[in-house]
Amino acid sequence: MARCLDSLLTPDAAAGEIEVIVVDDGSADATPEVGADYVKRHPGIVRLVRQENGGHGAAVNTGIAHASGEYLKVVDSDDWLDATALRVLLRNIRNWCAAGEAPDVIVSHYCYENVARKKPRVVSYRRFIPRGKICTWDDLGNPGIGRYLVMHSLTYRLDVLRSSGLELPRHTFYVDNLVATVPLMHTRTLAYLDIDLYRYYIGREDQSVNEKVMISRMPQQLRVNRLMAEQLQVGEIASARLRSYILHYLSITTTISLMVALLSPEPDAPQQSKRLLADIARVNPEAYRAFKRTPMALLFGLPGRLGSIVPRGLYLVLRRFVGFN
Q1: Which of 115, 228, 271, 279 is spaced 20 to 30 Å from 219 by Cα?
Q2: Element (H or E) spanning 241, and its range?
Q3: How far apart, in whole angstroms, are the C-alpha atoms of residue 293 and residue 291?
């Protein structure tokens, strides 16, 4: 947590351009003391908000409610931001706001800082979003198979977050998928900065995205997937490119959910997969049709045991060469 906070407290913070909201979500460790110490050392910059435990989603909800800046970025307490990239982000925000051209969302790179690997792996969007200008969704290219904008790559204008009606469920992991999609449906303009801003610290055994942990929390993954299907109704989105992208993201999330269920030892996991697909088909037929057109849907739909053996084998190959957590 100290590493995270130190990365945010740049000279720009001292100049009043950054506020840091620390949400103590009923922590049982030293979080309150650490947060209070930073408030004392950085008065007027760091704010500590304490609440009963509600999980990651409740903490993000609280952060959004207490924020007062022009833009908001969620930074998990075990991650951090690159100082040089943060200065670039702030300089651009300053210029855009002065010119009255502030984009609805800013996209930047994030880096997998895997504890088992010597070098970080950068996820960039150079082939997806034009650089050097504020653009609309219709200016964007194809994100590519498996490539999508995650919470770590997004910095939203605060009023877009609030007007989107985003309300994350309590005591549920994987809500970052909702942060990365629900407000995005309300964006019109984007800006892409070719900077490695967010450092995503992964590879620990107790982490929520660890394979074993995800399998043990399969119901929460499926719950978020259902919430996405309910809330990501693309019929009223004017931009065809944005509609396509939202369906693309939801298809990827559904693929992950089905893979988690496939790897689960729970005897009712296959039935839960079927119920998930049935629920998506019921509440969001367009999303269901989009998923059924994906290559992974075809593999999951292979007859008999092939429908489990082939996707599982493909996952194991990708995990080895891509380096999943």
Answers
A1: 115
A2: helix 240-263
A3: 5
Q: Packing angle between helix 218-231 and helix 269-283, nearest 10 degrees?
A: 10
For residue 143, CA distances in Å to 120, 135, 198, 290 come to 21, 15, 19, 15
Query: What's the total number of domains in the chain?
Result: 2
Instruction: Select from 170, 202, 234 the last residue of a domain.
Output: 202
Question: At 191, is the secondary structure helix, strand, or coil?
Answer: strand
User: Is 167 in the same domain as 39?
Assistant: yes
Distance CA 49, CA 59 (A): 9
Q: Which of 208, 198, 242 is nearest to 104 (CA)?
A: 242
Tokens of 16: 């009043």
Query: What would the pLDDT profile of 68-90 be if each residue is shown by its tens digit?
Result: 999 999 999 999 999 999 999 99
Q: What is the CATH number of the domain that holds 135?
A: 3.90.550.10
Can you say how many angstroms the Cα of residue 20 is from the centroid of all Cα atoms in its chain?
19
Residue 182 has pLDDT above 80, yes or no: yes
Using alpha carbons only, give the angle 89, 112, 75 rounded to the nearest 5 degrees: 50
Q: Which of 297, 301, 287 is nearest to 250 (CA)?
A: 287
C-alpha span between 1 and 6 (Å, rounded): 9
